[in-house]
Amino acid sequence: MAQRGSYAKGIAKREEILSTALEVIAREGYRGASVKELADAAGLSQAGLLHYFDSKDELFTAILRKRDELDLETYRTESRLDPFRVFLQVMRHNAEVPGLVELYTRLNAEASDHAHPAHAFFAERRAGMQAMFTGLVEEGKLAGQYPTDVDTASLGLVITAVADGLQTLWLQDPTIDMASEIERLLVSLGVFPSERSTTA
């Protein structure tokens, strides 16, 4: 029983660290997110923090996974209604947390190395996004919501790639409206009618 209680406490502390780290990075930015700063915010030593994670890269990967979980929880109730509108809402929210966007883009680039701790996370994430778009758009086709000639698998891949690329460009030029650019692309592909407003 003591072991079970200790394990549960460890899981709870890990979640507390991730929630605190998300707040720190969103507030201070990626550059203010050294292991020392994150450990201080969590009330731990650097060694104490790394007791819960094997490395800084594993910690940052877990932070991004936690961010995705929170986004899913936030927008879950709307996802079956209009997946593209929800996707644009997430992109608008990302513009409010540049530190997390920088963490995502840096780790995404580093994860091209198959040995990197984040490689599996990004591969799973890409597959998950593709499966989500495939399922929802195929349902939309049957309901007459989307054109029947849309290549669903390609659409999911392209939208994900465009979003990732725009986030990199946005870090260099914050005047770019990422959500609006993606909306224009969706309109041109015929899967997001131009009379819809995403600002409502």
Automatic annotation (TrEMBL):
One function term, GO molecular function aspect: DNA-binding transcription factor activity
Transmembrane segments: none
InterPro entries attached to this UniProt entry: Homeodomain-like_sf (IPR009057), HTH-type_TetR-like_transc_reg (IPR050109), HTH_TetR (IPR001647), Tet_transcr_reg_TetR-rel_C_sf (IPR036271)
PROSITE patterns: HTH_TETR_2
Domain HTH tetR-type: 11-71
The keyword DNA-binding belongs to this UniProt entry's keyword annotation: yes
Keyword DNA-binding: yes
Pfam families: TetR_N (PF00440)
Key words of the record: DNA-binding
Annotated region of DNA binding: 34-53
Gene3D superfamilies: Tetracycline Repressor, domain 2
Protein name, per record: HTH-type transcriptional regulator RutR
Species the sequence originates in: Oerskovia enterophila
Top-level taxonomy: Bacteria, Bacillati, Actinomycetota, Actinomycetes, Micrococcales
Recorded name of the encoding gene: rutR_2
